[in-house]
Amino acid sequence: MRFPESFLFGSATAAYQVEGAAGADGRGPSIWDTFSHTPGKTWNGDTGDIACDHYHRWESDIDLMAGLGLQAYRFSIAWPRIVPTGRGAVNQAGLDFYSRLVDGMLERGIAPVATLYHWDLPQVLEDEGGWASRGTVAAFADYARIVAEALGDRVAMWGTLNEPWCSAYLGYGQGGHAPGRTEPAAALAAVHHLNLAHGRAVQALRAASDADVSVTLNFHVLRGAGEGSEDAVRRIDALANRAFTGPMLRGAYPADLIADTASVTDWGFVEDGDLRDIRQPLDVLGVNYYSTATVRLWDGTGEMQHADGHKAAGGTAWPGSDSVVEFVEQPGPYTAMGWNIAPEGLTELLVSLKEQFPEQTLMVTENGAAFDDDVSADGKVHDELRVDYLRRHFAAAHAAMEAGVDLRGYFVWSLLDNFEWGYGYAKRFGIVRVDFDTLERLPKDSARWYAELIRTRSLEPALPV
Ligand code: GBH
């Protein structure tokens, strides 16, 4: 199982999850600062104030990446470092940080893949309505222009949004993510404004940079259980997947999505010309994949089973379908997140995307797993479960390529153990361990395994760790 010479092996992080230095050099507050500092919102009250302190340790971190042979690094730019109040004054110190980071990567032969938005909306914009408000769209397009003008000559690939599903539904519907709102209509308005922000940002990026442009979606790979489950699958597919691919890649919202959500909103926030702006040619469609989900029609009796991520009281991650569809517990094995391990779902997803969008180049922009790994007596982290998870998912991606999928690269989530949003520091996704007392980095067996995969470009024979 060899990967072609052009296949890009990378790893990924996100600004709020690794940078720390929340008050440094003019950075403004984001919705995740506010949320994580609100009692009861994150595990143990954890915040990203310090995180991995990557803001100060970036140079040794990219040395570490170079040591592993990473060809690309997917990071995100913190909007509140660049435009601390969301719109208006630009903070040069923020741009300088990413400029140094990008130059450092290029010096080490690592391709910079920069995401503009990985969930850290400037708090000032949330105070004006956040993603439920149309005003945020123009602010985002302006921020995209500023970043493209500053870094557009050196970044290898842009990503506009990371997982707008999470921003919209977890942030404004279910409330488990910042800003923690539980308003189904606001969640759907957020879906549209995120889509429009993506389209306008693509236009701004193209105007100032020749680099490739992508967006990253977290697709739901769905299975149905029981009678009538096709309708449950269709509904969740519409809300989770086609609500984004529809406008972005086909230029329209799916009719069934509009119908299913009619009791929540009339979609009056979609204005003339919006759909034309949202549909922009993309060099790459980024795919984040962790596990599958199984759904069935709810019979309306007893306690409803909720999907993982539906822990907060009130609100819904599935406007219009929350009293119709229930999520079914899936067979293990599971990761430490409780997510089932299903590599075949990745093959299926990539092949299905090729069938739906035959001309669209794909990359896996995130795949990885949290496990309860720890340092052994020999001073190493023997995370064989993560090695096994990654090996099987790389094999699954390879199988999709054999089936004709144009897959250009793969980013392991994550380079470092980091702030896992509502789970704080309780969940470790890194191939490099971070000691959150000393902030020391310790490559796990999975990091050595990955370095070997990158060096040989081959999953066979079994690689040493
Ligand atoms: C990604 O989110 C993030 O981009 C990244 O920042 C994060 O650290 C990483 O993954 C690990 O969590 O079908 O309702 O059960 C992934 C978030 C995980 C959201 C799976 C949807 C299943 C929802 N996704 N989850 S459900």
TrEMBL record:
Q: Does the keyword Hydrolase apply?
A: yes
Q: What is its EC number?
A: 3.2.1.21
The record's annotation in InterPro entries points to: GH, GH_1_N_CS, Glyco_hydro_1, Glyco_hydro_1_beta-glucosidase
PROSITE patterns given for it?
GLYCOSYL_HYDROL_F1_2
Q: Which reaction does it catalyse?
A: Hydrolysis of terminal, non-reducing beta-D-glucosyl residues with release of beta-D-glucose
Instruction: List keywords of the entry alphabetically.
Output: Carbohydrate metabolism, Cellulose degradation, Glycosidase, Hydrolase, Polysaccharide degradation
Record carries keyword Lyase: no
- Gene3D superfamilies hit by this protein: Glycosidases (3.20.20.80)
Name of the protein in question: Beta-glucosidase
